[in-house]
From TrEMBL:
GO MF annotations in UniProt: calcium ion binding; calcium-dependent protein binding; S100 protein binding
InterPro entries in the cross-refs: EF-hand-dom_pair, EF_Hand_1_Ca_BS, EF_hand_dom, S100_Ca-bd_sub
Record's keyword annotation contains Metal-binding: yes
Start and end residues of each EF-hand domain: 54-89
Cellular component per GO, a single term: extracellular space
Transmembrane segments: none
This protein's UniProt keywords: Calcium, Metal-binding
UniProt name for this protein: EF-hand domain-containing protein
Pfam family, one: S_100
Classification via SUPFAM superfamilies: EF-hand (SSF47473)
PANTHER family for this protein: PROTEIN S100-A11, S100 CALCIUM-BINDING PROTEIN
PROSITE patterns: EF_HAND_1, EF_HAND_2
Amino acid sequence: MPRSTATWQKCPALQTPRVASECAGKGSNSCTLSKTEFLTFMNTELAAFTKNQKDPGVLDLMMKKLDLSCDGQLDLQEFLNLIGSMEVACHDSFSCSLGASL
């Protein structure tokens, strides 16, 4: 059964590159996200995720894990690790919901 375009558009990962680019453009380097820009991105674009976290340090931990170069910035490749993880989570969620409705 083909998935509708509307269902795929609900996945936040498909909207994040545009929003991340807007966030990155606010700092000194428009090609990377600083920690502040990353936090802004997470708190605006993924607010449902951040508001439901019991650990207040979860975003700091995410930034630390994503920042493979340890330079305090997320470049495109590092940011795409987040996007890929979100895509997998969306796929798993859609697969489970489709399986449950059969």
